[in-house]
Amino acid sequence: MFLKAFKTKSNKKYLNKLLSKRKVNVDNTKIKSLGVILNFDEIEDFNAFNVLASRLKIHANKIKVIAYTTDLKSHGNSWDACFNEKDFGWKGEIKNVELQTFLDESFDVLISYYTQEHLELKLLTALSKSQFKIGILQTDARLNDLIIKTKIKEINIFSDEVVKYLTVLNKI
Q1: CA neighbours within 13 Å on the CB side: how many for 110?
Q2: Most exposed among 38, 62, 78, 172, judged by the fewest C-beta atoms under 10 Å?
Q3: Known InterPro entries for this protein (predicted)?
Q4: Is 25 within the bounds of a domain?
Q5: How far apart (Å, rounded) are the C-alpha atoms in residues 83 and 120?
Q6: Residues 160, 164: Cα–Cα separation, whole Å
Q7: What is the pLDDT of residue 162?
Q8: Could you say which DSSP state residue 113 is in?
């Protein structure tokens, strides 16, 4: 328990360091790939992101979804790309190979679809090499380039807003 507090503090410090170095680079290149980070405990409708990808004219093989859960045992078999806090070490170290592969891929757009405050989800968003990051309103606005204020269950409204803003930004 004592070491867990130090590990959390180490990861928070690393997150702040990443966010302070972050440079926002918005251009008008068309999007071809989509990454999604979500909290499995908050939402289970993964098909909505496939529908969003088709609305954004992204091929099905260019979308990757990764889910976080606090209880891996109860959700372990229902979703193949599931991770939890045990997949993280000190100073933001990633222990899961599949998770590291996701982070190494440079998506054109990353959607961070979660509202609960989990340090691991924030670390994934910050560590991602994605060019443009979209998220739901959170306490730390430095994580995303575009923040859409909706409720977690309003995935259709979120999708409409993403399409609208990406069209305005000339990314579709």
Answers
A1: 26
A2: 78
A3: DUF6913 (IPR054207)
A4: no
A5: 10
A6: 6
A7: 92
A8: E
Please write the tens of the pLDDT for every residue from 98-145: 888 998 899 999 999 998 888 888 989 988 888 899 998 777 788 888
Length of the chain: 172
Question: Could you tell me whether strands 146-148 and 132-136 are parallel, antiparallel, or unpaired per DSSP bridges?
Answer: parallel
In this structure, are residues 56 and 49 in contact, taking their beta carbons and an 8 Å threshold? no
Q: With respect to residue 27, please indicate whether it lies within any of the assigned structural domains.
A: no
Report the SS3 class of residue 132: strand
Counted domains in the chain: 1
Domain interval for residue 123: 43-168
Residue 17 lies in a domain: no
83 within domain boundaries: yes
Q: What is the C-alpha separation between 52 and 93, in angstroms, rounded?
A: 31
CA 142 to chain centre: 13
Contact (CB, 8 A) for 35 and 87: no
- Looking up tokens 């908050």 gives 42
